[in-house]
Prior knowledge:
Blueprint: H1 13-37, E1 41-47, H2 53-61, E2 69-73, H3 79-82, H4 88-91, E3 100-104, H5 113-116, H6 122-141, E4 145-152, H7 155-166, H8 177-183, H9 186-200, E5 207-211, H10 215-235
Parallel strand pairs: 1-3, 1-4, 2-3, 4-5
Helix pairs in contact: 1-10, 2-10
Amino acid sequence: xxxxxxxxxxxxxxxxxxxxxxxxxxxxxxxxxxxxxxxxxxxxxxxxxxxxxxxxxxxxxxxxxxxxxxxxxxxxxxxxxxxxxxxxxxxxxxxxxxxxxxxxxxxxxxxxxxxxxxxxxxxxxxxxxxxxxxxxxxxxxxxxxxxxxxxxxxxxxxxxxxxxxxxxxxxxxxxxxxxxxxxxxxxxxxxxxxxxxxxxxxxxxxxxxxxxxxxxxxxxxxxxxxxxxxxxxxxx
Length: 236
């Protein structure tokens, strides 16, 4: 699936500046409608390091009422979290009815980083596909609007962004030796991602693969998809 993504997709700066405020206003109005309808929304991001997840999240949330929207950056589990089933910590962060939760990284870490880095044994991460599908089915059946993004860039573009971050004092905190180490396992992550798409993409919770080589295009596309999915849910 990753090879089929057209990374040349782009949008010019003027179109971006014109369209983004329209989508943000649309999202703000939908947020109020979600509250009245008591429909929770879960938006989760996966994808390559430096693929623009944070920038996309920022544009989606920028004009929303912060009282009804929470962003959860997901890092390695704590000691307490490791003492529970891997989905336990995500249950605790799910939104109440009528609110929005955004996950920067997600429960898919079990079949991505934990698989590739061998933090989880094969029987454990293999079993996780069905556990994740069951988890997502429970959310959707309960009325949750579940939106899953994979932000995709080329290996060359990732290297370019890594080097830019290293030389930018405002972005240097975003780059770590671990990011460079992960690049060495690019092909292994591709293999893991492809199996993840094949085993967890379904009508109730489809994957949206975003061409993120052009940041403006990716931000508009993710915001547009969120608006469309919420609109469909509210009309249904």
